[in-house]
Design goal:
It is a multi-pass membrane protein. Pfam families: SURF1. The chain has 273 residues and is of the alpha/beta class. It folds into two domains: 73 residues; 144 residues, no CATH class. Helices cover 34% and strands 20% of the residues. It has four helices and eight strands, in the order αββββββαβαβα. The chain has a five-stranded mixed beta barrel with strand order 2-4-5-8-6. The longest helix is centred in the first third of the chain and has 43 residues.
């Protein structure tokens, strides 16, 4: 009755179904784990943004790698901006997705060490080889509040660290690179400024990271699991249809129908004349 399942066509179809089921289940768990990571990251961002600011020197030091648990921690730093060694970070977007540059200014602390401060976004110069017009940083001693961020690397950000750039232009915010350029100790990571607000609102301060959206990962996970559940159901439907078609063909060849299908009434018997 089901010997057709041993045919080459049906063996291949069955093997494909058997492969698809675990693959779709695994894809569902992959999306589910992405959902869990997104939820955990949102919670981390929310907690760190709500925490009271602490001096940046409590969380980082020269050569320190900022751990993920300290990302977006609110910190303060008091010192003097070193605008002579200010650089811009190329190919960055603002909240409106406009491409420009970030202004990266060293802040020399009272103890002589330096923390890099991302003062915000400005439009790039018309000529990529030219240094843009950067709004001046506050003069004298200033206390900056912001979010602590980890050093950017090509592997983590996907941004290629190009060489041969024009003077005072970089691709990545990296304390190690800037320490080598400045020739002095630079605290690991950098500070993303949130206060004080610049005069004229420029540079544009970087907005808070999104920590409300969870994306569609959970919906995708459920979708993959439904697909996995649908494969065996579809296989059974195809098998029953194939069986019915073969019985119909065989009945037509012998002059007999395939007989009533499931749930169909038996034909009424005719009374003798």
């Amino acid at each position: 009755m089901y010997r057709f399942l041993l045919s080459r066509q049906w063996v291949i179809l069955t093997l494909i179904a058997l492969v698809l089921i675990p693959v779709m289940i695994e894809l569902g768990f992959w999306q589910f784990h992405r959902h869990e990571r997104r939820v955990a990251q949102n919670q981390l961002i929310e907690d760190n943004l709500k925490a009271e600011p602490v001096p940046v020197t409590e969380l980082t030091s020269p050569g320190h790698t900022v751990p993920r648990s300290d990302y977006w921690r609110r910190v303060t730093a008091t010192g003097t901006f070193d605008t002579d060694h200010e650089v811009v970070v190329r190919r960055r977007t603002n909240a409106d997705e406009r491409i420009g540059v970030l202004v990266l200014t060293p802040l020399v602390l009272d103890d002589g060490r330096t923390i890099l401060v991302n003062r915000g976004w400005i439009p790039a110069a018309a000529d990529q080889k030219s240094f843009p017009a950067v709004p001046p940083a506050p003069k004298g001693e200033v206390t900056v509040t912001g979010r602590l961020k980890a050093d950017e690397t090509t592997s983590a950000s996907g941004i290629k660290n190009l060489s041969g750039l024009p003077p005072r232009q970089v691709m990545l915010i990296n304390s190690g690179q800037q320490a080598e350029r400045l020739g002095r100790e630079v605290l690991g990571g950098y500070l993303e400024q949130t206060a004080p607000t610049p005069a004229g609102d420029t540079p544009e301060l970087i907005p808070e990271p999104d920590h409300d959206s969870i994306g569609a990962h959970m919906a995708y996970a459920v979708q993959w699991w439904l697909f996995a559940a649908g494969v065996p159901v579809g296989w059974v439907v195809l098998v029953r249809r194939e069986k019915h078609d073969r019985e119909t063909t065989a009945g037509a060849a012998t002059g007999h129908g395939p007989g009533p299908g499931p749930g169909e009434p038996e034909p009424a018997a005719h009374a003798p004349a």
